[in-house]
Amino acid sequence: MSLKIKRICLICSLAASFLLLLQSVKAQDTAAISSFLIKQQKSIGKAVALVWKDGKIVYQKELGTDFNARTQAPIAASSQWLTAAVVLTFVEEGKISLDDPVGKYLPEFNKYMKSYLTVRQCLMHLTGFERDKGLSTKVTFGRKYQTLEDQVNALAAKEISANAGEQYFYGAYGPAIAARVIEVVGKKAFERLAQERIFRPCKMRATNFGFDGGCPNPGFGAQSTANDYLNFLIMLLNGGTFEGKKVLGEESIKEMQRAQLGSEPVRYLPEAVTGFDVSYGNYIQEKDASGNAQVLSSPSLAGTWPYIDLCRKYAAILFVADAKNEVKKDLAIQFREKVDEAIGACK
């Protein structure tokens, strides 16, 4: 190789390195994010913020002591995105349909004239059951039962306030019934199914539904870590693939990006997700000009706020330690705005 060619190669190499450096600096220009989080630390409490883009974590901030990205904490309603994903793996395999009546798998519902309730309606909180609105009642749901079977059989006998599919009432009942359906079909406990189908493939080693005693609470009872839940978000952002392994199919990913609630009247929806379109275990927080989902999230009433930005192609989570320090909607949105500024405009 001539000296001239070597010089040209060296110049090209240096130019490429410089461009990569500029991209890295832009991706990590995050001083404003840290400044915002520190300013709001009293409201947020102990927390971890993570942002992932282009195959790596581009921002990480820990607030408080003895709490980091590997520390477990309850995630309350953010559990529902995980539960929906587990259920959808059975739909992909053709083992169930979202429009199957639950009575097909759970005879107790036929006994109490509730055979018309469908799996889809369970995931969409259209069961007709009402529940106390407080966070504590949702988190403690199921503690007096040892198995999901006992809990859901008791639900079958419960009075309804509306026919299935007629009213939206956010709560813990629907996810529990859907989870029990796949227990019957999969012939394994829900916790094991979640581990085999979502947690292990996504390397979510510190995530489970069994931390609180009693039976699992698929709607509000999981615990996880910031690192673990970020892996789940990365899988969703990557079209259902995590580290080269397919976890969810393309149609399942699309289903969770579509608004699923129609004209049904909303009897109760938490303030944190008011104004968002409802999907399976998650919400369409923001749409583009064509009405397509751009930002998907699954806010927890306990404070944790995970989301993915499909246009800017990044995943982020604000993971909060203490349910008493609920991250309000405005703080979570401001956090996302700071991240967007660091990442750059949606193209």
Automatic annotation (TrEMBL):
<dbReference type="InterPro" id="IPR050789">
    <property type="entry name" value="Diverse_Enzym_Activities"/>
</dbReference>
<dbReference type="InterPro" id="IPR012338">
    <property type="entry name" value="Beta-lactam/transpept-like"/>
</dbReference>
<feature type="domain" description="Beta-lactamase-related">
    <location>
        <begin position="41"/>
        <end position="329"/>
    </location>
</feature>
<feature type="signal peptide">
    <location>
        <begin position="1"/>
        <end position="27"/>
    </location>
</feature>
<protein>
    <submittedName>
        <fullName>CubicO group peptidase (Beta-lactamase class C family)</fullName>
    </submittedName>
</protein>
<keyword id="KW-0732">Signal</keyword>
<dbReference type="Pfam" id="PF00144">
    <property type="entry name" value="Beta-lactamase"/>
</dbReference>
<dbReference type="InterPro" id="IPR001466">
    <property type="entry name" value="Beta-lactam-related"/>
</dbReference>
